[in-house]
Amino acid sequence: MSEDLDARLIAALQQDGRASYSELATRVGAPRTAVSARVQALLDSGAVGIAAVAHPQLLGLTSLAHVSVAVSGPADDVVGALCATDASVFVSAVSGAYDLVAELRVPSDRELYDALAHLRAQPRVRAVNTLLYTDVVTSVFMPQGPIRGDVHVNDTDLRLIELLEHDGRMSFVELARRVGMSPSAVRARVSRLVDNRALHVAAVVRRGTGSGRPALGAGLNLGGDDERVTAFLAALPGVEFVARTVGRYDLVLTLGSDSTTRLHHVTEQIKALDEVRGLTTWAHLEVFKEHYSRGIARTTT
């Protein structure tokens, strides 16, 4: 069934967006010809994109937050303000007690406060509730864990990152042509960035394109140690993002699937954990902005 194959391919590409068709075929247990056809169909439809995302640490973004916004009346102006700010990497209309959610990434807590103050000043904003990330447990949207070692990038590295931000599956031959190097030298540079967790190339589901793939946000309140819960969530199919937070929830997560039935099954598994005291969910109704790649200042040496 193509829907099931698509789900398995997206999951594999979220782990490694540059995996070859042969590697993908092995991972999902399907013929290479079927895999190449489905991947190309997903990319051509616009429902899925492959993009490189630099580690927030490499970008100097040390303050990350999940922001829920309640709006009086139509939310268009507030959406426009959120999408316009460089601080936001994700903006979505949601169901539930709040009308919008956004993820903000900025260099400092002071800049986060300023961004929130600007948001609160919007005429239709009725309430803003903020969850500060203490650490990201797992994410298909960014490299996992801290950067390994002392990674320095030069202008060539920056150009490669920019090219991969636009097309994560661009061939090494084409990358080499664009930056004026040999394919082997380009491969070595990209591998260094990926291996050191400075860069992650992955599939991003474009939920604002009418792809029909539902997504659910969730906040968890826990009792006791969270280690068993975070380990369980990190290994659970459909979990795209988990972060420890300070605020009204102990953990915030994103669930994605090809059906609401599967999302319900996942939430039931989570609620069955002894440590889970409460689970609050919100459906993502329309995604207005999903851009996890932010330009790196060229003062980097």
Q: How do the SSEs run, as a string of H and E?
A: HHHEHEHEEHEHHHEEHEEHE
**What general form does the structure show?**
globular
Q: What is the count of distinct domains?
A: 3
Rounded radius of gyration (Å): 19 Å
Q: What is the annotated CATH architecture of the largest domain? A: 2-Layer Sandwich
Helix share, percent: 25-40%
Placed side by side, the strands forming the largest sheet appear as 2-4-3-10-7-9-8-5
CATH topology of the largest domain: Alpha-Beta Plaits
Structural class: alpha+beta
Report on this structure:
Keywords: DNA-binding, Transcription, Transcription regulation. The chain is α+β, with helices and mostly antiparallel strands. It has three domains: 2-45, Winged helix-like DNA-binding domain superfamily/Winged helix DNA-binding domain (Arc Repressor Mutant, subunit A), CATH 1.10.10.10; 57-141 and 206-290, Alpha-Beta Plaits; 145-204, Orthogonal Bundle (Arc Repressor Mutant, subunit A), CATH 1.10.10. It is built from eleven helices and ten strands. The chain has helices spanning 2-15, 21-28, 32-45, 56-59, 76-84, 109-120, 155-166, 172-179, 183-195, 227-235, 260-271, and strands at residues 48-54, 63-71, 88-94, 100-106, 125-139, 199-205, 215-222, 239-246, 251-256, 276-290. Helix 1 packs across helix 3 (32-45). It is globular and about 55 Å long. Residues 296-301 have low confidence and may be disordered.
